[in-house]
Amino acid sequence: MIIGKVIGNVVATKKDERLVGHKLLIIQPLDLDNSLMDKAPRVAVDIVGAGMGETVLVAEGSSARLALDISDIPIDAAVVGIVDTMEVKGQ
Amino acid sequence: MIIGKVIGNVVATKKDERLVGHKLLIIQPLDLDNSLMDKAPRVAVDIVGAGMGETVLVAEGSSARLALDISDIPIDAAVVGIVDTMEVKGQ
Amino acid sequence: MIIGKVIGNVVATKKDERLVGHKLLIIQPLDLDNSLMDKAPRVAVDIVGAGMGETVLVAEGSSARLALDISDIPIDAAVVGIVDTMEVKGQ
Amino acid sequence: MIIGKVIGNVVATKKDERLVGHKLLIIQPLDLDNSLMDKAPRVAVDIVGAGMGETVLVAEGSSARLALDISDIPIDAAVVGIVDTMEVKGQ
Amino acid sequence: MIIGKVIGNVVATKKDERLVGHKLLIIQPLDLDNSLMDKAPRVAVDIVGAGMGETVLVAEGSSARLALDISDIPIDAAVVGIVDTMEVKGQ
Question: Where are the alpha helices (DSSP H) in chain B?
Fold first, then answer.
């Protein structure tokens, strides 16, 4: 999983119908200093009720679909956890 | 999913027959400032009727196939939504 | 899919037996100006008869296997189309 | 698999319930000189009892799920081995 | 597949038991000039008897598992061929 920060959300009226009712969060990957990385933002479906500004764990690829109960949903990223604390040492 | 801008389309006469009849859009990934990123463009199958210049959500990998009704189609990217608005804060 | 240029081919005598008889093309990813990108070259199995110097569409990951009739072939990239024209605007 | 160093761990109270009870390690990819690479850190589920500072092998994508006995767990990275020695030559 | 050079091997005593008995090679991606690229090294399971210094084809993702006879092995990279010659032109 990558560690990211919830920095926004996306509104998309015209979309695959299986996406209807799912919150689409914009996540920016974080580095070890808790800084936003210069990488492409991800849009992930939220299953844990993550809020703006929170640090989250994002599962990507086929694993993202398992986070939802709809196995045929065409998504490739899901927020699977909200990070309370990160303990980093030994860098 | 990544956020991208539809910047073109591809014509390919010689192709896997399961791709026939599907619109192949060229998508360039966008950053949070809505600028085109310096990354490889993606070619994605369109299922939502996205037009040139529109901002879209692209699902990649095996999830892209789920966006179509043909489960054995050899594609790895599909446009699954058209972005109306992006609300970004807390950067 | 990514857009790439066929720039060579690979000869490998010692290989997984399911790869025998398949043409292995070296593909370099292209940017929107049709220039070779500074990225790792891909080796992809050809199913459409692509020739040296042609611009092609490459499907990656599990989707590549679907391009062939052998579902258990251990490949992660396949040429699924030859690009006739790319129409790019709105950059 | 990538080679990485265990540099921390993540505490996440609110998470997908299938993640409960699994140790979530923060792994930083290593280069051939055993230096931390300037890449996004990964969070991986540990199945081998890896400790802080150890060099490990991380399997990513759908393969990560196979490392656990729960096939529908929404994870995309797992520590599958602890590296004792790396023999590198011919650079 | 990517093209890489076998530059070493990994010894890991503590590992997923399905990895026991498999040779774990360290592969560095190569560019078109046969130079090692500045990318993260991969650890791949060898199925073709590749030796130190050889140029090989590495299949990644779920395709890597197909290279072995154990479909549930948690690996994401396998050496599927040894490159005899690469013919590159039209750059």
Answer: 62-66
